[in-house]
Amino acid sequence: MELVKFAHSTGIEAIRWLPRQEQKKLGQFMTPPDVARFMAKRCMPTESLEVVRILDPAAGAGILSAAVVECLFNQPRLPKQIHVILYEIDSRFIPVLRRLADRMRRLARRQGVIMKTSIKNRDFLLSSIAAVRQPIADIIIANPPYFKLNATDPKALAHAYAVYGQPNIYGLFMAVCANLLAPHGRWCFITPRSWTNGLYFAAMRRHLFSWLHIDAMHVFESRREHFTEDEILQEAMITWATTHAQPNTEIVISSSNGSRDLARARLLRLHLKQVIGQDDERVVALPTETPIIETMRWNATFSTYGLKVSTGPVVAFRAKQYIDEVESANSVPLLWMQHIDHMLIRWPIKKKGEHINSNAETAWMLVPNTNLVVMRRFSPKEDDRRITAAPFLAGTLRGAMLGLENHTNYIYRPGGELSDEEARGLAAFLNSRAVDKYFRTIAGNTQVNATDLRKLPLPALKLLVAIGRALPSEATLAAVDSIVDSVLDIRQPQHIVGTN
Questions:
Q1: Is the pTM of this model over 0.90?
Q2: What CATH superfamily classification does 302-486 receive?
Q3: In this structure, are residues 422 and 471 in contact, taking their beta carbons and an 8 Å threshold?
Q4: Which residue of 47, 69, 225, 309 has the fewest C-beta atoms within 10 A of its own C-beta?
């Protein structure tokens, strides 16, 4: 049996009776064999090495290391020695890894290669090699666990250089391993996409890019089709990198729906500056077709036009004494994200708590009933648009004030007011296909952060007004796309650039 198939089958057997909730708590999901091989092929050394050292810091059943060893044995020139270091905190996998190591050694012996394996049943992030942060491996490959850590967790404290706020453990694995890669080494991780943007990962990104050059990234466009045997819903990606000894200034971005169509992956070759932001936050953009970033090279943002993006101030559990089921003389409408549709506010919808008292105690959490653009802060899991925005026009709902629940964002003009055309034009622009494609390149999760919105490049205000004027009274997404593309002269690409 091939090494990858052996590791996969014994791994499946080891966790067969593991409850799904416990697996989720550990944050570990087994890499499918075809994905493991896809990752390993690009990890081969760029020059012939007498000794190849492999590190898998979150080994699980050892599928990724098995894939690398398989690839090494298929190279024209075999190394004389292969050293494999496997860290795994879950003791249930240790017998599996020992069986795999024994099989690797027997295969190496037949090939005339010396194989050394080291299996460590301990927490990699608290290990001595993670603490010393010296180069020890020529190939580092990993599918790390992912779950949030408290900022006071020993692992977060040990690697504070890569921590901001409440870190996710997978980001620490990525940062630590960047320091452990030898010159000309190859580094490969499969992770969620969330590390590519947001303040929580900014310190990690700065550290990562100071040590590594990103060579390639692969984006799984489906949130279900990569870990085919696990019931998880996660936007995932693969990242390949080398140490900075490589002078390459290009990054290859590939994409597939999931693991089953990897052979038909679409390719883009982009300059480094088109993918990795050059400011302090180092946000990563992940375009999967002719870059929409090139189209949206406007210099204006909301602040340019005196507009502000804020998050709905009503936190329901803190304001529950003021939220009512029925309308009263002192209440005003309370909008939740469920009331917001593309270009349309639907209120009421017979949802609990659609009214909030308007009085001196709640005044700080209410906003004036004036022209706004309101948005959902989270997109539905499989919605075809990341942003759901609607114009709210003054007087549409009764009352001088309005409640906006905390799962919404809203745009307004402090000390002034959006015109009807501005509100409608901005909402249409935010709902458009162009912005959706752009936002997906910079946002690695379904959350629509006010921080990301504030940076969104905007066309000239007169063009946004022109969009608002051209819209029919009840605009569909198809009408929005047509009008936005026409007014802004956006030409939709003809898709596939290459195949992998």
A1: no
A2: Adenine-n6-DNA-methyltransferase Taqi, Chain A, domain 2 (3.90.220.10)
A3: no
A4: 47
